[in-house]
UniProtKB/TrEMBL annotation:
It comes from Streptomyces filamentosus. Residues 23-182 form the Glycosyltransferase subfamily 4-like N-terminal domain. InterPro entries: Glyco_trans_4-like_N, Glycosyltransferase_grp1. Keywords: Glycosyltransferase, Transferase. One of its GO terms (biological process) is carbohydrate derivative biosynthetic process. This is Glycosyl transferase family 1. GO terms for molecular function: hexosyltransferase activity. The keyword Membrane does not apply. It comes from the Bacteria. Transmembrane segments: none annotated.
Length: 378
């Protein structure tokens, strides 16, 4: 067995290994880094250079190491793992926190349990693929658990998915959280036409193709409805070709809050998730959401919102019916939006998430900062 890697005795350092460098994963990492810096820790992040994540972290004054890694496993895996191992040796962290499948693969191969290691899937890798590739991903997750001191899931449903795949691990569940003050809004959107907004990377996971398939049925019921897709990604060209004149593509934006405020309804028709941030952000803005029934969706919704707001994944007819019902009933939208806002304030404040993750660090590695206090709901 290899000798343990000694941590830097002069500071308490947490190394976050992250791939991808954008989207919801990046948002989670930025929020954790901000909380940990305020808590007296020294978070350092290894992530792909030139990404939105790297830029935002440097603006915060956080330590960033360039780690050149792609999203998918392939011939570059050995080089990527060696690159991350060099970062680990340079940083000498007390704990490694790997985010998403690729970083989880490289970090655990590089460290092999010699440093307390937290792996946070942010949705399981085997859900994104099919056939032999999915089976290989399940086998790796089962094998990699031996080098994982804690698997951190963002929903109970994500944990159950891992268990059902045969992953045997020490589990923790910490729900995602959002900056409730950042997304708060004063009231209804006041649009001249009913407006649906979908925020997410334009890719198969987020299911915008399902939404576009449902949209003609929405227009049949609400002819003046408008749809805005916020984000960019590999499916952008194909989705634009399939969209009609009532659909606007806003592209990637630095701040999604104005788009939530502009929405009458926010929709996320994902094929898989751990617990998506976009619905939480939308509810923090007081907007009702329609979400596909994937991991984390039921746990994110307020009690009683399942019937109007939860639809089967990859079901355009059910999605159209839910959107049409909400667009046609302003009083229902406003009530659901108020309840959603209060729900996020009480359950999904980002400060609660940061405190819970810090508690896991203390348990695994004796990492201590200033005292954590339960946030007071605003």
């Amino acid at each position: 067995m290899r000798a343990p890697i000694e941590a830097d005795p002069g500071s308490v350092t947490v190394l976050h290994a992250v791939q991808p460098g954008d989207g919801g994963v990046a948002r989670v990492v930025v929020d954790l880094v901000r909380a940990q810096r305020a808590d007296g820790l020294r978070p350092v992040v290894a992530c792909p250079p030139g990404t939105a994540l790297a830029a935002e972290l440097r603006a915060l004054g956080a330590g960033v190491h360039d780690w050149r890694a792609g999203r998918d496993p392939g011939p570059a895996l050995v080089r990527e793992t060696r690159g991350l191992a060099r970062v680990v040796r340079a940083v000498r962290p007390a704990l490694v926190h790997a985010h998403s499948a690729k970083a989880g693969l490289c970090a655990r191969l590089a460290v092999r349990g010699r440093i307390p290691t937290v792996y946070q899937p942010h949705a399981w890798s085997f859900e994104a693929v099919t056939g032999t590739t999915a089976e290989l991903a399940r086998r790796w997750e089962r094998f990699g658990a031996r080098w994982t001191h804690r698997v951190l899931c963002v929903s109970e449903a994500e944990r159950r998915t891992g268990e059902e795949a045969g992953v045997e691990a020490a589990w923790s569940v910490v729900h995602n959280g959002v900056d409730t003050a950042r997304f708060a809004t004063a009231g209804p959107a006041g649009n001249p036409a009913p407006t649906v907004v979908c925020v997410g990377r334009l890719c198969r996971q987020k299911g915008q193709d399902v939404l576009l398939a449902a949209w003609p049925a929405v227009l049949a019921e609400v002819p003046d409805a408008r749809l805005v897709l916020v984000g960019d990604g590999p499916d952008g060209e194909r989705l634009r070709a399939a969209a009609g004149p009532s659909v606007r593509f806003a592209g990637a934006v630095g701040d999604t809050a104005p788009w939530y405020r502009a929405a009458d309804v926010v929709v996320l028709p994902s094929r898989w998730e751990g617990m998506a941030l976009a619905p939480l952000e939308a509810m923090a803005a007081g907007r009702p959401v329609v979400v596909a029934d994937v991991d984390g969706a039921r746990e994110s919704l307020p009690p009683g919102h399942e019937a109007p707001c939860l639809v089967p994944s990859e079901d355009p007819a059910a999605l159209a019916a839910a959107l049409g019902r909400l667009l046609g009933r302003p009083e229902l939208r406003h009530r659901l939006g108020r309840e959603a806002h209060e729900h996020v304030l009480s359950r999904f404040d980002v400060r609660r998430t940061g405190a819970a993750v810090a508690e896991i660090y203390r348990e695994l590695a004796g990492v201590r900062g200033t005292e954590h206090r339960e946030p007071i709901a605003q």
